């Protein structure tokens, strides 16, 4: 099939290349010429394992191209909307200006029977409004909403082998069109839920709200564990054995960040309030508050470890991305902790395998090094905030020999507690003693 993908950020670039890999002919459109040029040359403008390989393999077969010229969508019959829906500047609501602009830009090129497929995360009710706009354009094109559940770090795999497919359709004919797009996944038995626009939009935000709640639940238990001497990891293992609960997403630590969970729960709250149902999701404000408290907890532990006097002390911060295997620092707990410690006067040195360039753009006041040893050398305190394998695998005896620190703060409960203690460290985890 001939597809277009409007917006070649994280979601769009991955979607375009994965669709080409599956055999479709794809054009990716973006307004940013440098992004288009990089993608066209087979270089993703962000770090995502597996994406360079897919970009070049699909590109090599001549099925994938990128352009700044929207007119190039004219041949395609299915048009994916993959532009961003950031938090608006004046509050928590999602800013839909890029989605609206993408639809307006597409309209002159649409043909009878074309299908526009929304993938961006939007407030419930958006698809209905957009469908009405498309209907009144008289192009004969239709709209479907098909939310995306990919995780950063696994984006290519999640797109090619999704857990489930959700089609929000306004016309039954569009089920067949989407089945054609996702023929490989359908053939492999991927569950498919066909529903209306509102449900499809809500599935996405409900899934992210649930995941955020699960993480904040275990972090709330960590707060209780901290004042009772209980161990949050054993607790998570024990409750996680109940299949109704499940162990995944029960890792206590510095909390969730990234471009989706924090923004999506805030936008969901704002939308529910607009709908007069603020009380239905009022708990999400608590989920957000618990999450932000965990960052403060790490900072407090660091200040305690420095004898209450962080000023002028060298603190090595291991990791700055919101999670490993990503270069994304949007709403990153690790970056927030580093900034707060710097604000208290500590000499913060941040290291990360992939996130330094992005972090520096946002917070140039911090010191950065890609060399882990340099961050650790003569440090008065070591704080692990993103569990990259290279930090989890550090030799505690070696770290002791090059730093001045005696305390290791494990903001992700990722380290081998006994090994660090055996090497003479005072180990401080989250929700455990
Ligand atoms: C998330 C959803 O998982 C995905 O389905 C959706 O499409 C986009 O948002 P992503 O933001 O890539 O994906 O990251 P995810 O792996 O979900 O992690 C989110 C955050 O939660 C990270 O900061 C991670 O460190 C944190 N986390 C995750 C925990 O603190 N504890 C856990 O047990 C799991």
Automatic annotation (TrEMBL):
Residues annotated as the enzyme's active site: 260 (nucleophile)
UniProt keyword NAD present: yes
Protein's name in the database: UDP-glucose 6-dehydrogenase
SUPFAM superfamilies to which the protein is assigned, alphabetical: 6-phosphogluconate dehydrogenase C-terminal domain-like, NAD(P)-binding Rossmann-fold domains, UDP-glucose/GDP-mannose dehydrogenase C-terminal domain
Recorded family membership: Belongs to the UDP-glucose/GDP-mannose dehydrogenase family.
Catalytic activity: UDP-alpha-D-glucose + 2 NAD(+) + H2O = UDP-alpha-D-glucuronate + 2 NADH + 3 H(+)
Residues reported in the UniProt entry to bind NAD(+): 30, 35, 85, 121, 152, 263, 330
Classification via NCBIfam families: NDP-sugDHase
Pfam families: UDPG_MGDP_dh, UDPG_MGDP_dh_C, UDPG_MGDP_dh_N
EC code: 1.1.1.22
Superkingdom of source: Bacteria
A GO molecular-function annotation: UDP-glucose 6-dehydrogenase activity
Binding site for substrate: 149-152, 204, 249-253, 257, 323
Domain UDP-glucose/GDP-mannose dehydrogenase C-terminal: 316-417
GO-annotated biological processes: polysaccharide biosynthetic process; UDP-glucuronate biosynthetic process
Associated pathway: Nucleotide-sugar biosynthesis; UDP-alpha-D-glucuronate biosynthesis; UDP-alpha-D-glucuronate from UDP-alpha-D-glucose: step 1/1
Keyword Oxidoreductase tagged: yes
UniProt KW keywords: NAD, Oxidoreductase
Transmembrane segments: none
């Amino acid at each position: 099939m001939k597809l277009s993908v409007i917006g070649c950020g994280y979601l769009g670039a991955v979607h375009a290349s994965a669709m080409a890999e599956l055999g479709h002919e794809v054009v990716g459109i973006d307004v940013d010429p440098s992004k288009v040029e990089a993608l066209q040359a087979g270089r993703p403008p962000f770090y995502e394992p597996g994406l360079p390989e897919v970009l070049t393999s699909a590109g090599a077969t001549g099925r994938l191209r990128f352009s700044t010229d929207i007119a190039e969508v004219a041949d395609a019959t299915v048009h994916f909307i993959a532009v961003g829906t950031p938090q608006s500047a004046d509050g928590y609501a999602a800013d839909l200006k890029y989605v609206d602009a993408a639809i307006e830009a597409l309209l002159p090129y649409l043909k009878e029977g074309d299908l526009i497929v929304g993938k961006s995360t939007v407030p419930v009710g958006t698809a209905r409004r957009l469908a009405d706009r498309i209907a009144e354009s008289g192009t004969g094109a239709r709209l479907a909403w098909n939310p995306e559940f990919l995780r950063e770090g696994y984006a290519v795999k999640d797109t090619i082998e999704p857990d489930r497919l959700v089609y929000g359709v306004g016309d039954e004919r569009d089920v067949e069109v989407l089945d054609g797009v996702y023929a490989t996944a359908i053939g492999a038995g991927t569950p498919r839920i066909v529903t209306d626009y509102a449900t499809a939009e809500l599935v996405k935000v409900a899934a992210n709200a649930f995941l955020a709640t699960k993480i904040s639940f275990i972090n709330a238990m960590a707060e209780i564990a901290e004042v009772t001497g209980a161990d949050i990891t054993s607790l998570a293992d024990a409750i996680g054995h109940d299949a109704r609960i499940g162990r995944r997403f029960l890792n206590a630590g510095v909390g969730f960040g990234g471009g989706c969970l924090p923004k999506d729960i805030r936008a969901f709250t704002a939308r529910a309030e607009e709908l007069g149902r603020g009380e239905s999701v009022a708990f999400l404000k608590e989920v957000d508050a618990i999450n932000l408290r965990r960052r403060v907890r790490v900072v407090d532990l660091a200040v305690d470890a420095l004898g209450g006097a962080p000023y002028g002390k060298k603190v090595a911060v291991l990791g700055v991305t919101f999670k490993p295997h990503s270069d994304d620092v949007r709403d990153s707990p690790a970056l927030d902790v580093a900034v707060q410690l710097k604000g208290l006067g500590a000499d913060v040195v941040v290291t990360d395998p992939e996130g330094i360039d992005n972090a520096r753009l946002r917070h140039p006041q911090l010191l950065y090094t890609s060399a882990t040893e340099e961050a650790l050398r003569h440090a008065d305190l070591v704080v692990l905030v993103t569990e990259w394998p290279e930090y989890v695998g550090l030799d505690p005896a070696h770290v002791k020999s090059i730093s001045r620190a005696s305390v290791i703060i494990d903001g992700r409960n990722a380290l081998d507690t006994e090994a660090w203690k055996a090497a003479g460290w005072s180990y401080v985890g989250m929700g455990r003693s």
